[in-house]
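Researcher: Next entry in the queue.
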Amino acid sequence: MRSFKVCFLLVLFVLLPGLVAGAQSSEATAPPANPSSGTASSGAATKEEVDQLRKKLAEQEQTIEQLKAMVEKLAADKPVPVATTPQAPDGAQLLNATLTQGGAQATPSPKPAEKKDSGPALTAGWSGEHFYIRSGDGKFQIQPYGYVQTDYRAYSGDGAPPNTFVIRRARLGFQGSYGKYYDFAILIDGVPVTGVNLRDAYVNIKPSAQFQVQVGQYKVPFAQEEIDSDANILFIERSLASILYPDVAATFRSPGAMVQGTVLGGHMQYWAGAFNGKGLTTNNTTNYPEAIGRVKFSPWKTNKDSRFQGFFVAGAITYGKSRGLSNETSFSGALPDAAFSFFPSFPINGNVWRYTGEFGWYRGPWTLSGNYVQLRMDREGVGSSQSGGLGFVTLPGITGKGGYIQASYLLTGETAGENSTPKVKHPVFGPETPGGGGTGLGAWELAFRYDRVKAKEPGTDLLGNQFTPGFVPTFNNHTDAFTFGINWHLNYWVKYMADFSVDRLQQVSINTGALPQNYFVVLQRLQFRF
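Model: Structure for this entry, 530 residues:
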C-alpha cells in the first residue's frame, strides 16, 4: 500500500505543473474587474469560453483517473519492494528499491556478504615466566627458551688445570605445541669448539597421558640427575656417578625413539625406548640399538596431606653393544669438574649393561636424593694395549660403580621442586615472579653432596699361551668428593652459584702422574635463562 501511495504522489508531482498552468491560463482569459464600480467589465468571458474551460478540467480529471488505474494495476502485478539497509555513515537510512524505467526492472545491488570475525591472526606476550607466540585459535604455540652459563674455575693440586673463565653453555631453542596432541622442541649450543651443535630436536605425539611417542634426538631417560635440565641442577657439575651414564660425551643425548606415559592415577611413570647410543646426530655402529627401560613410582603423589607427597623411587636398565672395529673405548675417567682423571680408557667390544636405582624426596624448602649406578662393558676379541701386543683375545669386562647422596635447603622459605626453579618471593630486582611480594634479598639455598665412583679393569695372565704370550695388568681405582654449594637466585631467571669441592685422588693419576692427594676446587657461575 505504501508503494501505491508513493507512485501516486509521483504522478501528482508530474501533473501538478500542468494543472497550475491551466488555472493560470483560465485566469488570464477572464477580464480584470473594474476597480471603480466593483462589477465585471464589459469584456467578461462568454458562456462558450467557460464551457471550454470546464471541458479541459474534465479531461484532466479523466487522465488522472486513468493514471491511477494504471498505477494500481502495476502495483497488483509486481509490488515494489522497499528494503531497509544499514545506516549510512551520516546516520541517514539507505533504501534499496526497485525502480521502473521504461518498463524494465532495475535490479538492486546485492548486499555484500558479511565477513566472519576469526579473531586476531597471532598473539604474543609474556606469561609471567616466558615469552610466547600463539595463533588466534590457540592451536599453535611456540616459545623461545635458552640459558647462558658463565663460569670461573679455580683449582689447587698437582697437575690440576689452570684457573680460568669459561662459557660452560650457551643454548638457544624453541619449544611449543600444535593442537593438543603434538609437542616439539629444538635446542642448539654455540659453545663447542667444533661449531654450533644440535642438542634437542624432537616431536612428542601424545594421544593420551598414558601413552605418548617421542622421536628425534633428546636425553636418554636413565637417571633423574641426568634428566634434570642443566639450568635446574643443584650443583654446577653433576655427580661423579654421572660419568657412568649413557652418552656422557654427548651431553646424555642420542637419536632414538621411545614410548612414555603416566599411569595408575599419576603414581607411576614409564619410559621404554631405543637409541643409537653413539653421540649427537651420530649413526649407530652395530645392528643392535641401545635399549632402555625406566620406571618411577610416586606412592603419595596425589595425597596433599602426606609429608611424603614429594617422595619417589625409580630404576632403569639399558643394554647395548659396542664395536671394536669402530675404535670404541670404555667410559672416560675424567671428573666432571676436570680436576683430574682417575681411570684410563680401554678398547671394548661386545655387550654393554647399565643399572641404576634412586630415590628423591621434595618437601617444602627441603630436598633429599640419592642414586646408585653400575656399568659393565665386555671386551670380546680385543687386543692388548701393551707393547708387543697379545693378538685378539677375549679379556675380562670393565666394571664401574658409583653413587651419591645430596640434600638442600632454601633459607628464604621458597618451595623446592623436581627439575624446577624456585619461585623467588622477594627478588633483588625485577621482573617479579608471579605471586611475588616485592623486592628483597632473593632466594638463598644451601646444598651438600657426597659422591663416589669406582672402576675396575681385571688383568689376566697369558704367559702360558704359546701363540700370544703376555699379561694384562689390573686397574682397580676409586675416588670420592665432598661438595658444599651456595645458590643465590637473584630472581626467577638469574642465579649465582658457588661450589667448594674436595676431590680425593686415591691412586696415582694415570694422565698426570700425580701422587694421591686432595684437590681443592672452587667453581662459580652466573646463569641467565629465559
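Model: The longest helix spans residues 47-77.
Researcher: Noted, moving on.
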